[in-house]
Structures are given as C-alpha cells and as structure tokens.
Amino acid sequence: MSEISRNGTGGGGQPGRIGIGLELDHIHLKILEVLRENGRISVAALAERVGISRANAYTRFEALRADGAIKRFTAEIDHVRAGLGITALIFVTVRQQMWKQFRAELARMPEVEYCAITTGQHDAMIQVRVADVAAVHSMVTERLAHIPAVKATETVFILDEVLKRPYVLPGDGDRPRTSRRPAPEPQGDVPLGKMRFVGAAEGRAALRKDT
Amino acid sequence: MSEISRNGTGGGGQPGRIGIGLELDHIHLKILEVLRENGRISVAALAERVGISRANAYTRFEALRADGAIKRFTAEIDHVRAGLGITALIFVTVRQQMWKQFRAELARMPEVEYCAITTGQHDAMIQVRVADVAAVHSMVTERLAHIPAVKATETVFILDEVLKRPYVLPGDGDRPRTSRRPAPEPQGDVPLGKMRFVGAAEGRAALRKDT
DNA sequence: GTTGAAATTAGTACGAA
DNA sequence: TTCGTACTAATTTCAAC
Fold first, then answer.
1. In terms of domains, do A60 and A17 share one?
2. DSSP letters of A152-170?
3. Domain check: are A20 and A61 in the same one?
4. Strand-strand pairing, B70-77 and A70-77
5. Stated pTM of the model
6. pLDDT in tens, A37-82
7. Among A139, A133, A128, A142, CA closest to A88
8. Which of A130, A149, B36, B198 has its CA 20 to 30 A from that of B73?
9. What's the number of domains chain B is made of?
10. B104 and B142 inside one domain
11. Record: contact B9-A87, CB cut-off 8 A
12. Among A2, A163, A179, beta carbon nearest to B132
C-alpha cells in the first residue's frame, strides 16, 4: 500500500513535458496548490478559489485523480502527540544484488516513514519515527543488522524539522524551476569548492530497479 | 505557512505519554489511521469504518483537529507528473549562530520540500524537487552558496523513492515501538561494528532553537 | 465551459441510554 | 460519554444553455 511508483528521478528530466497523461495547465496547478493546503476542501469551494465553475472543477478534479497527478489525500499527524517523538535518519549501505530483499524487509517495518535510494556514499536513506532513542537503537541493531542485504548503517537524529511543505509544485513563488542558464554573475564571490556533488558510488547505475 | 512546530525530537521521548493535550485512546488512533489513508473520507463513512456513531466521530474528529494531533489535510501529488522529476538531498553545514538567517532564506526557496536539523557530520538536510539536474546545480551554487550562513554543502540525488508512508503511527503492525528491552539474543551474529550512531558534531546542543 | 435546479449527503442539535 | 434521530445546510449530480 505504501510502495510508491518509481518516479524516474534519476533519469533525464524533460523540463516542459508533464508526464504522459493529461497536460496540466495553470488551472490544474492552481487546483493542486489549493488541494495540498486543504485536502478536505469541497469541490464547490475549490471551484470558487480557483475561479472556475463547479462542473469544471469536478471534471478537472476527477481527471487529476484518474491521471495519478493526485496520488491520494492524507492527514498530517503530529508525531509527538501520537507518541512518536523521535525521528532518525538511517543511511544504509546495501549489498549488491540484494535490493529486492532489502525492499521486502522495509515493507515489514512500520516505523519506517520514508525510504529513498540515493547516490553518494550510502545507497539508501530511511527515516524512522519511534517513541524513544532506545527504539532507534534496537531497530538498527536488532532489525536492520539482521538483514543480510544491509552491509552497514549510519544513524543521525533529527533535532528539529524546520520546514515541511505538503508538496512542492512548479511555479511556486513564480520562479521557474528549470535551469535558467543565464547565470548573471559568473561566479564571483562563491566558494564553489565548498559545494560537493556526490554521484553514484560503485556501479550502481542499473540498481534502480530490483536486481 | 510551512513553518512547522518544533517537535522536540531531540528531547527525551516519554514513551507512554501522549503530548499534553487530550489522551489518545485506541479509537483516536484508529481514526488517524483511516484519515491518513483517505483524508477526504466523510465523517459518516469514518464513523462506520471505526465502529462508532456519527456524533461521536464528529466530536473526536474535531477534538483531534483542535488538539493539533491532526495538523492538516493535504493532497499527495505526483511530482513527476507535475513537472518536477528530480529530487535531491542537500546536506548543509551551517555557520554557528547563523541559524536564524538560514531558516529565513529557506522559507524563500519554494523548491525546498523538507528541511531537518540533524546530528552527525552535517547540520541540516534539505530535500528539493526541481525539473532537471541543472536546476539542482544552480540552486546549490547560486542560491545556497550565497547564503553566508551556509558553510558547505553536499548533494546527493534520489534515484528512487521506495517507500513513503503518509504518517507513521504507534501500533502499526501491532508491534510496540517502544524499546522492548528483553533482547532475546544478546548479540550473536550481528556485526555491530558496522552500525554507526553519529551524535552532534561540535557543541550543537543549544542550537535547536534559533540563535 | 457555464449556470441553475433536483437529489443526495453532510453537519448540527438535542434528548435518551 | 456515547448513541440515535430529526432538522438544517451544504454538496454533488445532472440537465439545459
């Protein structure tokens, strides 16, 4: 249920094109903008805020849902109030060709909220929410360490979540998110040496799908 | 609007206690469980699925909202369909006592979906969604590098998002998420040496609040 | 793509268990 | 507290424009 679609993040992003489904115009984006702020708004109220008719709003709403642009509606819950006050990130190095097993084990860990495969020093990052720090420790040493696919882990704790946007959309803040090549100031006062881009570690190119 | 409440993640988690507001019983949790899967469900249908009366469902629903256990309702959007096919993590080292500035600058970057302050080698992790890899580059070198508070960055790309749960709740999978100390098998076949826990780097204890 | 009216459903209030 | 019912208000659907 929580297994989400492969999003092709590693492939080449085609700037202008919007997936393969319906073309999203600026009204579609505005609908998404309203909906990510208030997922329970009525379609009638949505229509008014977007500036279109009710019927049109229903049509577009359904289209966005059917197309998959809207994946689901969800409630954001306060983890602390829910009793899960500790959040940690665990960076995992996965043994080659054991990704399938790793994924399978992940699905069996309810405390994992998010898992992404990354380039860089580690292979995956998982975010867990638990009640106390001891639970993080037991999770890493008792659960993760028992997975043969896991070669090594590195755990850091989240001290504060500064920002969390429901979902980032293109055009937020009017600024086009494509690379505006202009680059007005070539690179005067920027200590570029301090900026590291970390590519895939070993030969992890073909690993995006399970092996 | 996206500035979320300090969640005290770094403090000591008190296992049994549920915040300071209302006590959440198992019915409250069940409501949250349904709501995080379908944020647009009607309260009538919610009542039925949870097994309580409509009136009761309305009362509890409002209580959860008022208490803050439910922070908001939102739509999950497919970033690829929305034209933001690239996701990256940027690990940032922040100059001491410039957190306030760093936070302020973050709020002005719409491509940032998430930012957390962490222990470990870096001070913060931010997740960005953009249209193409060039946008990541320009974001890091042109925007982040210009912030005096930013000492250094390290960028990795997300190749695939394996798992994304709307929100983790206690009791998911019946397993108590508190540390069950029993530890049946002391530590036989586990290569504990491979498991690293990374604490705060310098004297970053008091940095959870802006300085 | 829009408007308006009918049918359905949601939200509220209140008394009883 | 929780439930059940009746009442009111709103939303969704469907038709014609």
1. yes
2. EEEEEEEEEEEEE-S---T
3. yes
4. antiparallel
5. 0.81
6. 999 999 999 999 999 999 999 999 999 999 999 999 999 999 999 8
7. A128
8. A130
9. 2
10. yes
11. yes
12. A179
